[in-house]
Amino acid sequence: MAQRFNALPGFKRTLGFTLFYLSAIVLIPIGGLVIKVLGLSWSELWELATKPRAIAAYKLSFGASFIAASVNAVFGTILAWVLVRYTFPGKRFVDALVDIPFALPTAVAGLTLANLFAPNGWLGSFLTPLGIKGAYSALGVVIALTFVSLPFVVRTVQPILESLERDVEEAAATLGAGRVTTFFKVVLPVLLPSVITGFALSFARAVGEFGSVIFISSNIPRQTEIVPLVIITYLDEYEFTSAMALATVMLVVSFVLLITINLLERWASRYQA
Amino acid sequence: MGFQIPSIMAGGHTISGKSQRGSEDSPIARAILLTVALGFVLLFLLLPLVNVFVQAFAKGLAFYRESLVDPDSIAAIKLTLTIAAISVPLNLIFGLVGSWAIAKFNFPGKPFLLTLIDLPFAISPVVAGLMFVVLFGRQGFFGPWLEDHNIRIIFALPGMVLATVFVTFPFVARELIPIMEATGTDQEQAALTLGANGWQTFWHVTLPSVKWGLLYGVILCNARAMGEFGAVSVVSGHITGQTDTLPLRVEKLYQGTTSGTAAFAVASLLAFLALITLAVKTFLEWRSARAETAAQRLVPDTEVQ
């Protein structure tokens, strides 16, 4: 679109306010942390950020988030497929349910999941005899993270699937391709960018999650302790610099994920009309 | 798109009348996929939600009532409402002003500015809370000065509001920007040509065209503001009856009691809030989908955005 004359007033004032508010709420707090951390030497920062307790927490946080995002990539895609392609009673209700993890406070999610998977809970009473410990374990962390990051894949794949022309699949069928071949050769390549974007969003959400996990995890140092919990524990113990070192690692991870997601979304929108 | 629930702008496509036999799944595949998908929804979404209410009433209605009218729970309800009543309007004003600047004008660095607005969605709430401790805590930049002047920010209401404003920062703006971009500036330019001033144009032209999207953003912003845990937990100080919000109260009751029924009673309030949020959201989406179909019926040969 050609640049036209824009007679709308208030550009300078509204942009000025936007930049002021953004600075006051977001940029200055981030800058404060960065400046404080820059006061440390590299070796000091490295040593604090790589203590055994921190390393164990990174492994759990990133590992559990990866598993949770993978589970959601598979089941979220299936769910999106079912919601777009099939008609069944209660479809609108199921579609609305998908957003529950966005709307339900994470503390409530953690509370109810811990109760469900506890040895005497509705699900735990079935799983415990099988030797599966859903609550107060590393598996519990995965369960909580799967719940909180569940809507992302569904909601990124759904619009792509809706805009997908079924004619292409018809053409594949006419040319003799079976349904499975059509799915893997025709549908999946188009869906994949959005599935990966949804996966990245799920992962980013899961890595930073705190509220739900502390309810369902046993929170034992070096075993079932996620990074945000280590940061809070350090703060409570007045180990200010250690808390900041770990927060810096998490902040860098957030930046990298945000940039990755931006690039992925640009890649994913290639296929969209 | 991004970290948020996709905009209500994302409308569905109407199904055409032609045969789609070649793109239909076999009955067996259909049955398997439906079972897997619905089983996943049942186990991971419906059961946890139902469980909140079942556990909340596990010890009967009297106990439920008692848990809620407890002075500390009442204080938590009041604090949560206060924090939301300050944070949501702040982000609402930013959302309107910011989307006006970003959607109605072209300027260099716009994509970068949008990325900065998304930052609070990417940053862990605990890290966000820590940032405010770094600024205003006892060992922080302004800590000594604040202490000298007897101003409390951390472990008090101002810090909790700041943390909440941070985590809910993008909600309204992110909802409004795509809607304002889609409507363009023609109507505003026309209003200005006809002699309206900037404010009149905003109130009578721009605001009515984004009101549903605005409501949508505010509802989501409010749900997050009332339910935030991590960021608020860092700056709260957990003083019972004073700096415990509803989610923090849930945690304290869960750790303090053996059965957790009281925790579930308080949690049921938040779950109820989530249900209202979802109901309003579903209604707004239904409304926008209906408006889109109506628009398509009016102009059958034009592609409706």
Question: Can you tell me about this structure?
Answer:
The complex is a heterodimer of chains A (273) and B (305). Helices cover 75% and strands 0% of the residues of chain A. With 273 residues, chain A is mostly helical. Chain A is globular. Chain A has a single domain (42-271), classed as MetI-like (MetI-like fold, Orthogonal Bundle), CATH 1.10.3720.10. In chain B, 73% of the residues lie in helices and 0% in strands. Chain B has 13 helices and no strands. The interface between A and B is large, with 102 and 107 residues.
Order of helices and strands of chain B: HHHHHHHHHHHHH
Rg of chain B over CA atoms, rounded to whole Å, is 24 Å
Q: What is the gyration radius of chain A calculated from CA atoms?
A: 23 Å
CATH architecture of the largest domain in chain B: Orthogonal Bundle
Helix content of chain B: over 70%
Number of domains of chain B: 2
Tell me the major beta sheet of chain A: none
Share of helix of chain A, binned: over 70%
Query: Which CATH class of the largest domain in chain B?
Result: Mainly Alpha
Listing every helix as H and every strand as E from the N terminus to the C terminus, the arrangement of chain A reads: HHHHHHHHHHHHHH
Number of domains of chain A: 1
The CATH topology of chain A is given as MetI-like fold
CATH topology of the largest domain in chain B: MetI-like fold
What would CATH call the class of chain A? Mainly Alpha
Mean pLDDT of chain A: 91
Number of strands of chain B: 0
Unreliable stretches of chain B: 10-16
Question: Oligomeric state of the chains?
Answer: heterodimer
